[in-house]
Amino acid sequence: MNTLLNRSFVSVIFAQIASLFGDAVLRFALPLYVLNQTGSAALMGAVSACAWIPYIVLTPIGGVAADRVNKRRIMAALDILLAATCAAFLALDGVIDLVGLCICALIVLYAAQSVYQPTVQAAVPFIVPRDGIVRATAIVSQISALSGLVGPVLGGLLFGLFGIEPVVFVSGAAFAVSAVLIVTVVRIPRDAIERSGVGVVRTVANDIVESFAFLRHERTVILKVIFLVAGINVTLTAFILIGAPVVITQILGLPNQYMGFAEGALALGGLAGGVSVGVFAGRLRLSRAPLFLLVAALGLLPIAVVLMPSAHLAGVFLISVAIWFPLSLMLSSAIRSTDKRKIEAARVMGASEPYILFHVALPAAVPDIFTALFMGLSSSFGALIISEQLGVKAGLGWYINWATQWGEYYKVFASVGIFIIIFYLLINVLFKVRDRVMTWQKSVVRW
């Protein structure tokens, strides 16, 4: 193995391309097939949820098993299993329950891939020179990312033009090709395979416990980021996996090919984001993460407005956003700008992080919170007028528009006067609340 592109590594790369291609196509096509046949987003979500359970459970075990079991046998056995699963799906399609068949196929698919990819990554150091490990690992990772980009697009085209059977057949053939390459060409040194007297499950449990203890006591920031990212993925991933197919194929009535393009666009965005993080890593700071989340949320606003079932709900949503945007921005800025000396003093006195948040940071941010509420109140009135002029047949905004069209401008001025009175009353109520809450500033600031 004097060069990076030796026979075993090239064969692993081609086998990985074939296997990941079949995996990406089936992950895209099977849930969409359930949605097309049943028309139920709930069933599609149930199928996807059942498939993710073995993936979550087996992924940690897969990494440990990849270090302790014959890697070549694992990859070949998993590809053969996936090819057999595709053959069984084709044989049983239309014979047994559709949802149960898709759940079984996806469970096998996700379970196999949770072990397959860690095994490929673990095999790389044993089939390439030492100075080429970094480049070889990068190639393997890029192939995984590109399969997520190309697989759904091709799967959408095949599924939209020919149906589910050709998609499953092509995926099964890809798994079979991968298995043949691994069995006939790939050679991994047997002396590189490590053995251990401790069971795989016990090893995984010990690693998880030690890692959690380390993060909890030594790297609390990383643990918080993990929980934050997990929460974001729980919400956004649900929208992408379930909401996007329903919106594209059912609400918009577009063919399945467009869903494939949408999945490819999502993968392209993820790839571009990963590259951008690598390029601008020196300029990125964790404190700027809320700003990126805010931009991502704003990018979903047009989709949310368009998908509202009525113009009234769309108007309510716009008003809510008009209040939420300045409030969240000012609150985040105020908490970050809290006097560090107060926080350190609270920590010295033994205060916990939740106590510091609710008894130090939030009280210090109260003036900015009320400033954001004043800004949100004014912007919400602007959003109210705009929303009532678009697609509704009631409200002062609609009445102003109607009176303008008929040239009855005295009604326009009367409506504006009513807006002013309502806004004045609400502003005074907010001032009273602020006086009540911020009693400690009465002797310093007079409203």
Q: What do these coordinates show?
A:
By secondary structure, this protein is mostly helical. It contains 15 helices and no strands.
Keywords:
mainly alpha, globular
Secondary structure layout:
Blueprint: H1 7-38, H2 41-68, H3 71-92, H4 98-127, H5 133-162, H6 164-184, H7 200-217, H8 220-251, H9 256-279, H10 289-307, H11 311-336, H12 340-348, H13 353-388, H14 396-405, H15 409-437
Please estimate the helix content: over 70%
β-strand percent reads under 5%
**Could you report the average pLDDT, rounded to the nearest whole number?**
75
| Structural class based on helices, strands and sheet pairing | mainly alpha
Brief sketch in words of this structure:
The chain is mainly alpha-helical.
